[in-house]
Amino acid sequence: MPVVSKDVEPLTIVFKDDGLVPNNPMPFLVYKGAVDIGRNPEATIEQLFGDNGWGAMWRNGVYDFAHYHATVHEVLGVARGRARVQFGGPHGRALEIAAGDVAILPAGTGHQCLSASDDFSVVGAYPPGPPMDLQRPTPENHAKAVKTIPLVAIPATDPVMGKDGPLPRLWQR
Predict the structure, then answer these.
(1) What is the CATH number of the domain that holds 62?
(2) DSSP count for the chain of H helices, then E strands
(3) How many C-alpha atoms does 139 have within 13 Å on its Cβ side?
(4) Count of Cβ atoms closer than 10 Å to residue 60 Cβ
(5) Quick check: 105 pLDDT over 90?
(6) Residue 173 resides in a domain
(7) Per the structure, how many domains does the chain have?
(8) Are strands 93-98 and 11-13 parallel, antiparallel or unpaired?
(9) In Å, how far are 7, 25, 41, 43, 165 from 68, measured between CA atoms?
(10) What is the pTM of this model?
(11) Is 61 helix (H, G, I), strand (E, B) or coil?
(12) Does the residue 162 lie in any domain?
């Protein structure tokens, strides 16, 4: 079982809809240094997310263009390196994320990698539900997204802390 710091409370940020990036009234969550990534960081994060019911995993970085997902929530676990990522669209917030950090994006949350170390590696995953969709911030995509985002189910578990983690408590409609 991956080692997780159980006393870490996530940073919470609510990003407003800016007319192109819909974001979500539920908070974006960031656990700083929550995961002891060990000798095989990607596998450690994959096990953690899988043990907590999040799947459809992938390994890569974060796209360098602004985008969001309108049909699914997403978790990003930083396995290696560091990056500066703009969350919440152009009017959101740029954050430094590094190995051991986990960001949980409610459906609609804009994100874009601004810069990254050469070794930057992320494990992404999704809760059970529809497959990931990729939307760029356009008026047409925004109009559709504001209809689909409220329909996305709230996950039963926090991908870091499980069923007793903060996500089910913090994500309420």
Answers:
(1) 2.60.120.10
(2) 3, 11
(3) 0
(4) 10
(5) yes
(6) no
(7) 1
(8) unpaired
(9) 30, 14, 25, 25, 24
(10) 0.95
(11) coil
(12) no
